[in-house]
Amino acid sequence: MRYTLKQLAVFEAVASYESVSMAAKKLALTQSAASMALNQLEKLLGEPLFDRNGKRMSLTPWGQWLRPRAKKLLFDAQQIELGFTGQQLISGELALGASQTSAEHLVPHLISKIDSDFPELRINVEVENTENVIQGVLAHDYQLGVIEGRCDDARVHQEVWVHDQLVVVAALNHPYAKYDRVSLAQLEQAKWVLREPGAGTRRIFNSAIHGLIDNLDVWREYEHVPILKNMVVNGAYLSCLPYLDVVKAIERKKLVALNVPELNMARTLSFIWRKDAGENSLRECILSEAKWLAKRGFNGLMPK
């Protein structure tokens, strides 16, 4: 084979940074050396890998096809090097995109366990809503994602981590808090504050009320759960939030979970990755550790 690992490393870095100069800096190369390696690779393969728009580099369809395969080759090469230098095979870095609920309540437990069992493995976490995590996985920004609900994209593999549920919450002094059961008509008359469109929580809530509630009075939409919780605690609003996000406030009697039998809002938190990503020992290690935690219920954190 005529292409080299150096050329593939330059290609992957340029794909990540969309810039030859930034890729060169990352790889400790001169910009001219990085440009030469990339040009040689394109010439050898006989296809353009990037569209050049000024200084910005975006992948062509050929570049998109090559990227997961190049990443696998580079990962395997790193594992060979680590093996022959006597280092732990489970070492290196993995980029994880996580939805807000999982990032706040579950991912810290996962990182703590991995730090204990595999101290040479580093997880770089970015918190996004579910839609952005899916897009980040597809764009190769994340090697692994944690999302709420389903992903229907055929390019993505999804594996359930834990089961969770959404609950409708109100303040302790809200008129609905005294009822044993709240009707759909009452929900329709209430003022709501909800997660933004694109959030997994919002998608599941919208699906649950579809065909049951025609006109929901949504006053505010916010990305951050603490804002929504505090607005419910301090005001006359209702919200729909994950059990994990409100269980402590319910136990402290700051919030009340309303009983709305007609709404089925069970959901899953799942890992996702690209189907064409190939084998990855770091990903498999993280999944194994995550399954161990799930079997033990995160020390009673998960709903029964």
Automatic annotation (TrEMBL):
<comment type="similarity">
    <text>Belongs to the LysR transcriptional regulatory family.</text>
</comment>
<feature type="domain" description="HTH lysR-type">
    <location>
        <begin position="1"/>
        <end position="60"/>
    </location>
</feature>
<dbReference type="InterPro" id="IPR036388">
    <property type="entry name" value="WH-like_DNA-bd_sf"/>
</dbReference>
<keyword id="KW-0804">Transcription</keyword>
<dbReference type="Pfam" id="PF00126">
    <property type="entry name" value="HTH_1"/>
</dbReference>
<protein>
    <submittedName>
        <fullName>LysR substrate-binding domain-containing protein</fullName>
    </submittedName>
</protein>
<dbReference type="InterPro" id="IPR005119">
    <property type="entry name" value="LysR_subst-bd"/>
</dbReference>
<dbReference type="InterPro" id="IPR000847">
    <property type="entry name" value="LysR_HTH_N"/>
</dbReference>
<dbReference type="InterPro" id="IPR036390">
    <property type="entry name" value="WH_DNA-bd_sf"/>
</dbReference>
<dbReference type="Pfam" id="PF03466">
    <property type="entry name" value="LysR_substrate"/>
</dbReference>
<keyword id="KW-0805">Transcription regulation</keyword>
<keyword id="KW-0238">DNA-binding</keyword>
